[in-house]
Amino acid sequence: MQDRCRYWIGRAARVLSAFALLAGAGVAGAAGGPPPEAVASGAAPWSPYVVGFGIGLLSCVAFLVSNRPIGVSTAYAQTSGMIGCLVAGSRVDRMPYYQSVKPEIGWEWMLAVGVLLGAWLSAVLFGDFRVEAAPPLWVAEFGPAAGWRWLAAGAGGVLLGIGSRWAGGCTSGHGISGTLQLVASSWLAVVCFFAGGVATAFLLY
């Protein structure tokens, strides 16, 4: 059991190391300012409507090619399972959840890595990539201390993980794949996502 966990964690470490090398190259490039071609072209951000349409097409292609929905929250559960099996061994395999969701690198895990890679590539190509401890909006509202932002981001991640498992999916699983299939529970989840997001935004900002 632990040998299998070490195998999957080793593969995950290699994938993330490759991504870290690419991101490091982006950091080095960003230190010199935006690339000349990005400045010369005056590239503007994509329209959210075009991006939304593209995500819809991607979801359709995912169903046609792999018969799998787009979703990433399971990747975090798989990661926690891989780490947990190193500590708890075979007890993880006996958990009902991990009997249906194997703690290994699967479709969702690679999709999450692809999202990170795509965001990094887009930021580098458009000359928007930069490293900052706290975004300007956060600094304006809560000050420059990065510790509070990291604490809030960590707490938000924990709540997101609990909520996505409780709801049986995340914003992508329900908001993209579920609504595409006209699943009533997904539409209800999306309404709750927006209500909670808008309320939180007004509360904080």
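[next item in queue]
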Amino acid sequence: MITFLVKDAKKRAEDKGVVFNEAESRKKNEAWLPIILFYVLLYMMALVAPNLIIVEFYLIGLFGITISGLNHYYEWIKFVKED
């Protein structure tokens, strides 16, 4: 899905004559896509079982995914592999 979004953004940038940074576009899509998928999952859960998820779990999940996406985009916390 991310590859499709990056290719589409590259095509649109080339059509407009704008310089395109593929790494930046991939990074941005990897950061916001889990949040969008979380909302889609919640919508489907609300259709199937409306009272299954409570507000606290929803907020904790949304907060965690948002912090993870922001960390992925801005690279605040880096995990270093020691050899």
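[queue empty]
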